Amino acid sequence: MDGDDLAAALSRILPAACISRRPEDLRAVARDESDLPGVLPVCRCRPETTEQVAAVIRLAAARGVPVTARGGGSGLEGGAIPSAGGLVLDLSAMDRVLEVSPEERLVRVQPGVVHDRLNRLVGGHGLFFPPSPGGSGDMATIGGMVSTDASGIYALRHGGTRRWVRGIEVVTGTGDVMRVGGRVPKSSAGYDLKSLFIGSEGTLGILTEVTLGLEPVPPESARIALAFPGIEEACRAAAEMAGYVPEAAAVEIVDRETMGLLRGLPGLQDVPEAHLLMVETQGRREDCAAGMESVRDIAAGHQGTVVTGTGDPWALRHRLTRTIRETSAPGGVVRTDCAVPLPALATFVREAKAAGGFPGDVLAPGPRRVYVFGHGGVGIVHCLLPLGGPGAWTPGEARAARTAIAARAVALGGTVSGEHGIGIGQREVLAQEHPHGVAWMRRLKALFDPHGILNPGKVL
User: How high does pLDDT run on average in the chain?
Assistant: First the structure.
């Protein structure tokens, strides 16, 4: 549909200020934080109410216009990249905190509320929303986090976003408004329809309101960094800590090559070029201390030693992705975010580092680099393959290796995505992971989005 015609039709159902075809506005929503190429939409609209969202979807359905919902644009798999000839539904203006109920440990929000802002607000009540999107908390929106079932460094203790969603309001691909779930922490009333939309990446409906559970802020926390002579020793220690240290809230793993990149940054010359675990315990002071004692004992059993003089380990952790991307510029990176069962963690990381040494030998091992880090305590591993800088891959080689790495994770009993979602780039391996399930996913898609307008080309 012609962009001017679409804008004219939208102007009959939305205020003029909500609609834009300005080139700078279209460029701003053409891509997300992935290294995938952007696509210019024909129009961007910024609704402010559920009724406006529903009206836009009904118009788009009638005219066959693809619609891509967008929050903060912090996704890493292209889920917010528009479809050619499509409309971007920018939900950033729907950013109201509608209710905070401390006695219920509950908050109701619109989808455009940003993670860090929400936690600053509910922190005044001694509460917090536990899923942490890591270094993107200042831009990740609640709607986006629900759409990918996002998690982060505290997934070991607090799980992913799905665990904290009590209810949602959603607009389907026909423009119908549904409210599913509710306010209570637990319900046995029929099918759990809300869970269909969590992780669906805007392909089944557009979130317009979310009711979230909250948790009391931990009274104390303690952090430590530990160095290991080999990546397998670090992985085995991470798995043991996750299983036997109940106070552990996060167990992060970072390989030697990634730490080596940080050593080149100002003020970080003393960072050890070693395989690291970064661990945090939470609870009462005595609980944190007991947990840390267990962490040190487990590390020592795997040749791990305490690292001192590096400051807050999380400050280093949050710089990793940005540093790798800057080092790999202008080519960028190809990434995975697979997850594997903890007993398979050491095997998977060793084989991922070999970059092609899997059964079938998709690629021969060579001088190409694979930067590895992730949430070792829950088996989530980020493998970043640079397309520029030291150890660069060609795009074709990197994509082939990414597919091989993800397929190996699935073969080990894991998943193609632990937290970033499927988006554009991971659909092939999703079909390997769910050889029967994808067909049923398509049936659900047709039920909630019969015109096929919601984020087409993503997930399935």
Answer: 92
Residue pair 198/165 in contact (Cβ under 8 Å)? The answer is: yes
Which of 161, 318, 342, 370 lies closest to 248, judged by CA? 342
Spatial CA neighbour of 385 closest among 396, 140, 105: 396
Residue 53, pLDDT score: 98
Cα→Cα distances 85→12, 156, 227, 348, 453, Å:
20, 41, 51, 41, 11
Domain annotation for the chain: domains and CATH numbers: 3-90 (3.30.43.10), 97-216 (3.30.465.10), 220-317 (3.30.70.3450), 320-420 (3.30.70.2740)
Task: State residue 362's pLDDT score.
Answer: 40
Using CA atoms, how far apart are residues 408 and 406, in angstroms rounded to an integer? 5
3-state secondary structure of 141: strand
Per-residue pLDDT, averaged over 205-220, amounts to: 97
Residues 6+ apart with CB under 8 A from 118: 97, 107, 109, 129, 142
> Running DSSP on this structure, what letter comes out for residue 454?
B
CA distance 204 to 227: 44
pLDDT, one tens digit per residue, over 240-281 is 999 999 999 999 999 998 888 887 777 777 778 889 999 999
Cis peptide before 330 (omega within 30 of 0): yes
SS3 227: strand
Q: What is the pLDDT of residue 273?
A: 82
**Comparing C-alpha atoms, which of 381, 386, 383 is closest to residue 368?**
386
Q: At which residue do the structure tokens 């398509």 appear?
A: 442
Query: What six digits make up the tokens of 286?
Result: 């005595």
Which two structure tokens, joined as six digits, stand for 229?
């002579």
Q: Which has the closest alpha carbon to 420: 34, 157, 28? A: 34
